[in-house]
């Protein structure tokens, strides 16, 4: 928890919640959606409605990497990418 400063017990409902924080790995957060699935012209991607947790996790990671590249590319210059991150980035650039 050193990168976040002091961890104060009882602040988080679940201490494992901190693991999913985007700031821990130098990426911006993925987009968040709420119900209903179609609101103000914004549609929830089908993958998030699928119930397939592996695909949802992959989608969220890809979105986080894409947002970071678009908005704060300097954060990625010091990052060591996993093989999965490399694959997701290649897929993302192949779409364009």
List the SSEs and their pairings.
Blueprint: E1 38-39, E2 42-43, H1 46-49, H2 53-71, H3 83-95
Antiparallel strand pairs: 1-2
Would you write up a description of this structure?
- The protein is mainly α.
- The chain contains three helices and two strands.
- A two-stranded antiparallel ribbon has the order 1-2.
- A hairpin with a 2-residue loop joins strand 1 and strand 2.
- The protein is globular and about 45 Å long.
- The model has no long low-confidence stretch (mean pLDDT 81).
Summarize the structure.
The chain has 3 helices and 2 strands; from the N terminus they run ββααα. With 96 residues, it is mainly alpha-helical. A hairpin with a 2-residue loop joins strand 1 (38-39) and strand 2 (42-43).
Name the average pLDDT. Answer: 81
**In CATH's first tier, which class of the domain at 47-96 applies?**
Mainly Alpha
Q: In what order do the strands lie side by side in the largest sheet?
A: 1-2
Tell me the CATH architecture of the domain at 47-96: Orthogonal Bundle
In percent, how helical is the residue content? 25-40%
Task: Supply the number of helical segments.
Answer: 3
The end-to-end distance, rounded to whole angstroms, is: 37 Å
- CATH superfamily membership of the domain at 47-96: tRNA(m1g37)methyltransferase, domain 2
Approximately how much beta-strand content do the residues carry? under 5%
SSE order, one letter for each helix or strand: EEHHH
State the secondary-structure class: mainly alpha
